[in-house]
Amino acid sequence: MKLPATLILGAALSAAFVLLGLISFVWTPYDVTVLNVAGRMQGPSADHLLGTDHFGRDILSMIMVGARTSIGVALVSVGIGMAFGVPLGLFAAANRGGWVDEVIMRGNDMVFAFPPLVLAILITANFGPSAVNAILAIGIFNIPVFARVTRGGALSLWTLDFVMAARVAGKGPGRISAEHILPNILNLLIVQGTIQFSVGIIFEAALSYVGLGAQPPVPSWGRMLADSQTMIGLAPHMAIFPGLAIVLMVLGLNLMGDGLRDHLDPRLRRMR
Amino acid sequence: MLRYLGSRLLSLCLSLAVASLVIFAAIEVVPGDPASFMLGLNAEPDTVAALRQELGLEGGYVERYLAWTGGMLHGDFGTSYTYRVPVSELIIARLWVSLPLTIFALIISTAIAIPAGVWAASRRGRPADILVMGTTQLGMAVPNFWFAMILVLIFAINLGWFAAGGFPGWEAGFFTALKSLVLPALSLALFQASILARVMRSSLLETLDQDYVRTARAKGLSRRLAIRNHAMRNAMIPVMTIVGLQFSNLIAGAIIIENVFFLPGLGRLVFQAITQRDLIVVESVVMILVFAVILVNFLVDLSYAVIDPRLRRRR
Questions:
Q1: What ipTM is given for this predicted complex?
Q2: Is the same domain home to B43 and B108?
């Protein structure tokens, strides 16, 4: 079967950043903890491919190390969303129409009224800013997203014959959810996971940018942009390259999500 | 229609009650004593006690919760610890920046997205469609605050058409004030417009496939008229939903964008309040933001009923 071009392009783009982040654990062009004030705010050159920042740190190296923070925060947040959202959605679908379903779905609507930024504000007001709090805020935001997708996918499966057969065979709702429903909605979850991964990258950058996420000296793409802001007239490259990193990573994940959806669900292909 | 309105109103009130409980719990119950938190580690016990008194922290949770929500219903949000003025005054002053910014961005994004989506749908698979889809794909990947910085770099620093930030106030004249909101609103609108244009396109494509549109075409209506008179109304429903769902992003985005442009809006207020540990202000601003999100979703629900009369009877 032929893979969609968007899937290949998107996967390649995002994989490149994951790879950059992984490489940064063993090697970066320059040490990001060493400051070199004499060589600060240099434009791109052969020595520093993407230039240096206001402390003379190599921007390429910073982007590599920052990739860890962005990708790590976004991935763990997707994990939190799935770990809580999927069981909730399965549980709601198994009790469809009942009060449990109603309570879970209304609870979902409630969480939707709190954008991640507002969640982050609430968390930070109590515990102070950190990457962990950013993970919590984005993770909580992800829970109702996965609960909704899971419930929606599961509801249509519950009416199908093979589920009926499993019920006749004496399996309870829990076992049916785990053995028959879940494997059949994995496609949906993978696609949604990719989308939330990309949303997570943007939110992490935004939270770090306003100072609610990763704190110095932990490099993150959002923090790099915040640092560059007052110097944007003097050293535009400080703002342009970290921003491009975010755009390319998010674009890659979005393309991958679209490609995966088309690939995994052939019915959608004719829609495009 | 009245019954529909009633049931929606009831759920609006319920949502607000639950949201206020959550916020109250997060700010006043979880972290222990807000007074000692606000004063820091070295505070004298006497000072803490005095602040507790001043903040109305004496008394049980239930009592305080009722006092807080009861006060809000009368427009009394308490007194800011750092500013020493009523929080409601602070919020109203800041709302005059945040609200126009959000609405401005909403207008720009819909004004771009709806024609773009219709254009793409009516030229499906052709260069125009590919152009719109490509641009929106990119638009969804650009973080709004970075786009804002790029706009500042181009239009404020290099071309000098706009100020790089700041807000002269509405007293300076409507258009002067509006001009300082142009770049912020544009940066907020990009992501929004991208999503809306895509939803508009796919929703219109789906509607154009329906039998009644085919009938209208068979009857001799031009494609243009068939879209305008028959397809648009139905195609708008998913678009309205997304406008509503995206509104919370717009509000959150406005808070961040205000930081880029140094606009004295709710966002700046809440971030300053966080660093100054002014929990009363944080609590109230968060409540206002959540209230706005819930209210907009309520209005979107109502607008369905206006667009699609069948929904009025169904519930």
A1: 0.88
A2: no
Distance between CA atoms of A102 and A2, rounded to whole angstroms? Answer: 42
Q: How far apart are CA A211 and CA B136, in angstroms?
A: 28
SS3 B278: coil
Residue range(s) defining the domain that contains residue B14: 2-73
Q: Tell me the residue length of chain A.
A: 272
Interatomic CA distance for residues B203 and B231, integer angstroms: 10
Window B:6-45, CB contacts with A under 8 Å: 15, 18-19, 22-23, 26-27, 30-31
pTM: 0.87
Same domain, B145 and B215: yes
CATH number at residue B230: 1.10.3720.10
CB contact under 8 Å between B252 and A115, yes or no, is: yes
CATH number for the region A5-24+50-266 comes to 1.10.3720.10
- Domain boundaries of chain A, sorted by first residue: 5-24+50-266
Residues on chain B touching A125 (C-beta within 8 angstroms): 26-27, 274, 279, 282
Q: Specify the 3-state DSSP secondary structure of A52.
A: strand
Q: DSSP characters for B82-130?
A: TT-SBHHHHHHHHHHHHHHHHHHHHHHHHHHHHHHHHHHHHTTTSHHHH
Closest among B151, B249, B267, B160 to B196, alpha carbons compared: B249
Residues B137 and B281 in one domain: yes
Q: Is the residue at B20 inside a domain?
A: yes
At A103, give phi and psi (nearest 5°).
Answer: -65, -45
Please list the residues that pair with B88 across neighbouring strands: none
Most B CBs within 10 Å, among A6, A102, A106, A122, to test the B interface? A122
Domain total of chain B:
2
Give the CA dihedral A164, A168, A172, A176, nearest 10 degrees.
Answer: -40
What does the pLDDT look like over A147-205, one tens digit per residue?
999 998 898 888 888 888 888 888 888 888 888 889 889 988 999 999 999 999 999 99
What radius of gyration do chain A's Cα atoms show?
22
pLDDT given for residue A262 in this prediction: 82
